Amino acid sequence: MSLKGKRVGVALTGSFCTYEKVFRELQKLTEEGAVVQTIFSHAAGTIDSRFGKAEDFLKKAEEITGNKPFLTISEAEPIGPGNLLDILVLFPCTGNTIAKLANGITDTPALMAAKAHLRNEKPLLISISTNDALGMNMKNIGLLLNAKNIYFIPFGQDNPEKKPNSMIAHTELLIPSLECALEGRQYQPIIM
């Protein structure tokens, strides 16, 4: 499947340790010809961390995509009524965002983008990055695995010795996972 001209939303949440990989894959998306609109959660758009400054991440997203990131709930809300995207990726998706999505909470631009996009019955792709995937958040992941129009980038444990409940998506599988989701299929295997 060609991604040329596909309208892809990429909503970043606060798993800053994954941003290097995320921006690498974001670049690949644009090279494939996708029209990419980024959306930043409040945390992603405002918190400076040991992995970089929020201002630099916002600038980098705009440089790669050519589009100014959405930073507010009111900027993300028109995604639904305007039918602005073919697919939305929560990339990365923290445990906090997973829990809120599974329970219908819409209090960040990333979650508003997801809610607005899902109303159009179009695919939402999730790139897990959470330290409690095999703990308290497993029930939320289970709910989302069974939800209509929600797909996952394959994921697995990232450090079973030091963080036994932690799981992270294989971000290098973004494009094939995205292509499958656009066809209404889950990329397999889902757990690697």
Distance N to C terminus? 24 Å
pLDDT under 50 segments (min length 5)? none
Sketch the major β-sheet: 7 strands, mixed
Q: Write the H/E string, N to C.
A: EHEHHHEHHEHEEEH
- Total helical segments: 8
What's the Cα radius of gyration?
Answer: 15 Å
Question: What average pLDDT do the residues reach?
Answer: 97
Proportion of residues in helical segments: 25-40%
Number of strands: 7
Strand portion:
15-25%
Global geometry: globular
Which structural class fits the helix and strand makeup? alpha/beta
Domain Flavoprotein: 6-167
Pfam family, one: Flavoprotein
Protein name: Dipicolinate synthase subunit B
Organism: Candidatus Blautia merdavium
Kindly summarize this structure in a few lines.
With 192 residues, the chain is of the alpha/beta class.
